[in-house]
Amino acid sequence: MTEPKENPLMEKIVSLCKRRGFIFQSSEIYGGINGFWDYGPLGVELRKNIRDCWWNDMVRQRDDIVGLESSIIMHPKVWEASGHIGGFNDPMVDCKVSKQRFRADQLFFAPVIIDRKIVGYVSALESETTAAEMQEQAEKFKRKKAIQGKLEPVQPRDFTEAKSEEIPLIPSPATGEPGSLTPPRAFNMMLQTYVGALRDESAVAYLRPETAQGMFVDFKAIVDTGRVKIPFGIAQVGKSFRNEITPRNFIFRSREFEQMEMEYFISDEDDWAKWHRYWIDWCREWLVKAGIPAAQLSEYNHPKEKLSHYSKGTTDIMFQFPFGVQELWGIAARGNFDLSQHAKFSGEPMEYFDDVAKRKYVPHVIEPAVGVDRIMLAILCSAYCEDQAPDEKGKMESRVVLKFAPRIAPIKVAIFPLLKNKPELVEKAKAVRDLLRPHMTVFYDEAGAIGRRYRRQDEIGTPFGLTIDFDTLGEKGDELKDTVTLRDRDTMKQERVKISELLQLLLPKIR
Amino acid sequence: MTEPKENPLMEKIVSLCKRRGFIFQSSEIYGGINGFWDYGPLGVELRKNIRDCWWNDMVRQRDDIVGLESSIIMHPKVWEASGHIGGFNDPMVDCKVSKQRFRADQLFFAPVIIDRKIVGYVSALESETTAAEMQEQAEKFKRKKAIQGKLEPVQPRDFTEAKSEEIPLIPSPATGEPGSLTPPRAFNMMLQTYVGALRDESAVAYLRPETAQGMFVDFKAIVDTGRVKIPFGIAQVGKSFRNEITPRNFIFRSREFEQMEMEYFISDEDDWAKWHRYWIDWCREWLVKAGIPAAQLSEYNHPKEKLSHYSKGTTDIMFQFPFGVQELWGIAARGNFDLSQHAKFSGEPMEYFDDVAKRKYVPHVIEPAVGVDRIMLAILCSAYCEDQAPDEKGKMESRVVLKFAPRIAPIKVAIFPLLKNKPELVEKAKAVRDLLRPHMTVFYDEAGAIGRRYRRQDEIGTPFGLTIDFDTLGEKGDELKDTVTLRDRDTMKQERVKISELLQLLLPKIR
To answer: Which of A17, A19, A201, B431 is most exposed, with the fewest beta carbons within 10 Å of its own?
Structure first.
């Protein structure tokens, strides 16, 4: 579907994710559905760990942040107030002949200029090779039309910049012929449905395009019941939906996705820039704790002229994906726009009463917003690794490893009896499994050579492997009895550890 | 909205849930949206504990069950194969005058019979008093029409049983007059949307009405990648949507809800009844571990003649809600219907290869399906309790307690410095908070008299309270130094515990 075939690293990651049950295309047996993904057994555990770590660090370990789960379908007025009905639009271009639709900012065009005269137009959809493709098209055009003279290098612009007199001259990327493209038109990205018995305007409702509005709409209810004092935050994890025209880059941009958003309310007199910086740093540190190397992260400040009128500043934490540096976590200082809008549209005051200063005001807000899917993809990409490891006979072979941080890894410990046809080994291995399982995710595997079992776990990022062998049973004497081999995924080093000391050794490592 | 005002216990629970931030009406500042609920700070923690306990017991602690998260919007063919497009209908009746719509099986009617002659009809919507209400209507009818003779007791039937010649004679519950009700018509309960650029038949998609189909559609992908062997299960937690015409009983029946479903695949030659019983017992035990008294649970076997043709048996675990005994957890033996349907509609084989018996077959399935919201409501109802407790001066006063099982309670331990204006007490209390917080949810509270602080925690079901007093600081000598008072929510008994022993004392109690 949207797998970038031209990117070998992405291809490997996509293939591993499918092969090992991290990520499947949704409804694959029916040919799939574009922009939707399913998460298999290992994918679910990885996502659960991402969510749980975020929830723990963001809510449970702090005094100043509380949780919320608001419904996906809310009153439609919410989206009038938030501006999503009026403004949540992508400019779209239709091709009247092919019936295809393109995002205007992803459709590029350029005049073909020979001897300083415009002799025609070329176009292409955004990709890593857009410019080269269009240059080639221009050369072909020149040859085909047999025009003599000097061809200037093409200078692609996107379709939002096309002048009305240019539009009829630009070829459709679908047909190669001009004349079929419409001017860009606004296309609302919210998915719409009807709730209730009737199917008319009164029943229209939307699937939320972000979880954030839930926090604003319930702000008063939480202030009234939650014993919170400014500065405080409301955090939520949940699904959102956007009718993206061109879902792409695997799970990076999909139509159904899961967000982790937090609205941090501060006094209108407080220093917003200080809090903005606080949350950028917090998010960066969190990503590093989740196993993403700091060196792969950077910051992008949205230029002032591109910000909404109410926004004081937005910084994106960027990650070096295999398909380019892209937004991972956005931290926006939104002023008091959202609360003020809801006060206006609902008629309910959205003020906070400061009982020390004895004054009422509408709080300002800092919003760190991130997607579970994007973090999952960033973690998969940064964890993916190929190195060399010795096989059974000591010969070096290439090894695929997912170097997940232990706190994020779907399975913490794999447990292997050396041989599956020795009941004493199997029994002992299962006893070790039962000892550890109440405290961490384990995987018991008795099938195949021990080296192959290690490789299977390396490939899914299990940080620790335990082998139960004849020494464990006491065949080499009492000193090694009831010890096991603990293997480290990354260094592949092995050490001998007492079973009775396993828990206290492993527990701090997986937190 | 749908709060059953006539039920004093439900009223108290609904009011507590709102007052303490467990459950809010969705979009309340805009007048709400019928059938949708938001979960506040304590509600979210309660739900997270329900989900995490289920996931842990169902997936992580077992070798034979793996997880899945499939998308809410799937390929529309899925719902053709599952029968939801053709058959997921409620028979609905419209009142042409009031424009109201009723579920036919919730609209009751009866002929008014005087001296063995039908002289008219009465009707009422389903409630606990339907029959009495209709009897009263019949008596009123007799008086109003001044008909002499013996009135027979009314015998209510639901509207699906109304004969076509009766329909024009039955009064609408909205207007009280006959002539405006339509015959029952099928009304599909799936919420529909459009995905992609166009808004035509080709773009129609549905919000899933159950998570179960995800497990069937991804069955092959999981068998191929998950190293699973029959018998095995696939479990999922996630949102589902049904366009219920009459959402009611608080969060019992809503339009957006969260399911925890598991499909357990067994051999076609295995004894399904044995597995069916196994899962019924498992679910009952789980509910008891979650704090629901066994005595409030019962079983209801769907009668054979009401089962779908493919179903071998369905048993519901019922719970005594304040509004009646209702379904809590359904355990269905579904044969191989679902996998066979998807094989037929997708053209993909849905067979499992048994590599010991060397034979292929389509597995049968047992499905325990439950809603997070229903379990949450059952837990709230069974935990709600009013008793007597002494106030500050020893006078007995009434106390509201939520007797949550500690593993489910939103907050495990509340921590109180005896006085908030003694820095040594506050500092020590915060040290205790920081000691416990990495391991459990805690709430630090320094505001108000200690008795009031206890009451506030009782009302939200916090099982343990710790008070840091002057003895903790060593004012009564070394023996009591660094000890705290541990108060039990249910018995209200207090004991003195060493801070250094708190973790090992509390951890086993909250698991």
So the answer is: A201
Q: Which helix (H) or strand (E) holds B208?
A: none
CB contact under 8 A, A63 and B444: yes
**What single letter denotes the amino acid at residue A448?**
G
Contact B104, B92 (CB under 8 A): yes
d(C-alpha A71, C-alpha B47), whole Å = 14
B114's CB contacts (< 8 A; 6+ apart) are: B142, B147, B148, B149, B150, B151, B152
CA distance A305 to A510: 45
pLDDT at A33: 95
Q: How is residue A345 written in tokens? A: 């549209």
Query: What ipTM is given for this predicted complex?
Result: 0.89
**Length reported for chain B:** 511
When computed from its CA atoms, the radius of gyration of chain B, rounded to whole angstroms, is 28
Residue at B118: amino acid letter: I
* B83 against A100, higher pLDDT: B83
Q: What is the pLDDT of residue B3?
A: 40
Residues of B in contact with A221 (CB under 8 A): 21, 24, 28, 38, 40
CA A152 to chain CA centroid, Å, is 41
> What does the DSSP assignment read for B252-288?
TB-SEEEEEEEEEEE-TTS-HHHHHHHHHHHHHHHHH
> Terminus-to-terminus CA distance in chain A, angstroms?
37
Distance from CA of B126 to the nearest CA of A (A): 18
User: Is the sign of the CA dihedral A344, A346, A348, A350 positive or negative?
Assistant: negative
Which of A95-104, A209-218, A359-368, A419-428 comes out lowest in average pLDDT? A95-104
**Of B422, B421, B432, nearest in space to B464 by CA:** B432
**Distance between CA atoms of B147 and B170, rounded to whole angstroms?**
19
What's A397-510's CATH class? Answer: alpha beta
Of B48, B77, B195, the CB nearest to A30: B77
And the tokens for A40? 């298999």
Complete edge-to-edge strand list for the sheet that includes strand A364-371: A65-67, A232-241, A256-266, A364-371, A324-335, A313-321, A297-301
Cβ pair A467, A451 in contact under 8 A: no
Secondary structure of B441-459 in the HEC alphabet?
CEEECCCCCHHHHHHHHHH
Q: How far apart are CA B163 and CA B245, in angstroms?
A: 23
Give, in order, the Cα–Cα distances in Å from B232 to each of A199, B124, B365, B409.
42, 48, 10, 31
Under CATH, to which class is B39-87+190-380 assigned? alpha beta
pLDDT digits (tens, 9 = 90+) for B151-166: 999 999 999 999 999 9
When pLDDT is cut at 50, 70 and 90, the band that residue B245 belongs to is confident
Residue A478, SS3 per DSSP: coil
Flag whether pLDDT at A5 surpasses 70.
no
Residue to substitute from B17, B29, B73, B90, interface A, most A β-carbons within 10 A:
B29
Contact by Cβ (8 Å): B476, B460: no
Residues forming a β-bridge with B232: B265
- In three-state secondary structure terms, A5 is coil
Numbered ranges of CATH 3.40.50.800 in chain B: 397-510
Pinpoint the residues of chain A covered by CATH 3.30.930.10: 39-87+190-380
| Tokens encoding A46 | 């990885």
Of B38, B187, B444, the CB nearest to A218: B38
Note the pLDDT of residue A202: 82
Bridge partners of A118, per DSSP, are A113
What DSSP string describes B306-330?
GS-TT-SEEEEEEEEETTEEEEEEE
First to last CA, chain B: 37
Contact B59, B235 (CB under 8 A): yes
What is the C-alpha separation between B288 and B296, in angstroms, rounded? Answer: 10
